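ARCHIVE CARD
Drawer: 12
Card no.: 0347
Subject: one protein chain, sequence and derived structure
Cross-reference: see card 0346
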Amino acid sequence: MITFLDFEKPIAELEGKIRELRQLTTGDAEVDIGDEVGKLEGKLDKMLRDTYGKLTPWQKMQVARHPERPHFPDYVAGIIEDYMPLAGDRAFADDLAISGGLGRFCGEPVMVIGHEKGSDTESRLKHNFGMARPEGYRKAIRLMRLAERFNIPVITFVDTPGAYPGIGAEERGQSEAIARSTETCLDLQVPLISCIVGEGGSGGAVALAAGNQILMFEHAIYSVISPEGCASILWRTADKSKDAATALKITAQDLQKLGVIDVIVPEPVGGAHRNAEIAIKALGDALEEAMKTVRRTGASPEKLRTMRREKFLAMGAA
């Protein structure tokens, strides 16, 4: 049973009507309702296409945060073979908000790193809702440097509201860890492909997203601050969150125009949460093409690093 968002109320009502018709029986014989169900399913498909074809930035944010979107383990299971998780920052602890390990993508060894929000209450608490502490970013740094040592490409999956703002995290150097992780992304001499698969929030996202190629799902978001946070600072009220979402240019379509991301990955009609298998396959295909694009440059390790740095330095330049 899909969790419906507030703007999906007409869709929810229509899906409920279809379910009721399918369950309709007369005695032991099932009523012939095939034609009626077919018409309603056609209407539902059109409604989904129309609704998701003109989502506002605020609605896209709701879709990006949908709890049933695919998570890091789903992408690993669907795209990566022979995955072997690696744990710990070798300094303090193992932060479960960021996962990573070695595997194979299209037969090639890769290092995979990504945020993990969790899929139910227990796992969300375990993974701290994808909000990493300093040890999470230091683990990411360790894995990226390990990949560089063995000349292995790095793939990252970004899905976080932002880095954890707790007192303990600040005491252990949260801002320094984020800065070091971002610096490591920019300094690597191996290909780095970053995928924004859900919510890309603030420096906690950038710390894993400074790649040679940046892919972003059609209904994902990527922003320096959440719309709610922006509204509370500028207008002192959460009532302006929708206005903030529009002004921040958080959608994949806006960010591609601004040159912040490279590729928009299409999602199934109704969002990735409606058909995770199709979404994961689409991301896998886009990743394969992105890896080929980076390889086609024929760039040396030093050139790969230079190209990545120049790419980010050019953002926002007049």
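Annotation on reverse: Strands lie at 25-26, 29-30, 81-85, 98-105, 108-115, 154-160, 192-201, 213-217, 221-223, 263-265. The mean pLDDT is 92.
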